[in-house]
Model the fold of this input.
Amino acid sequence: MTHWRNNFLIHRFDKLADEADTSIVFQPLAEQLSALELEFLQSLKTDQQMLFREWQDNGLALEYMRKEWIYIKGVQDGIKILSRLYSE
Done:
């Protein structure tokens, strides 16, 4: 795949990720989640808060790694499809 197509795909993914982060569609649920998290953390002792944060950080890292893997597989599939289309 040419360099410009690769850059286009990366740029498109980044743009969509930014849109998802700032979309008003997700805002009510994100605010509700933040409020529940704060309430939950305030109910915990300090050592429990630290343990929860560690669990949360590891869970988010795993989720990110899985999404990145899916994205990479999607790009690879797209490259295969494009190369077959252009080779015909």
The longest helix spans residues 46-87. The two ends are 15 Å apart (CA to CA). The chain has three helices and no strands. Residues 54 and 82 are 42 Å apart (CA to CA).
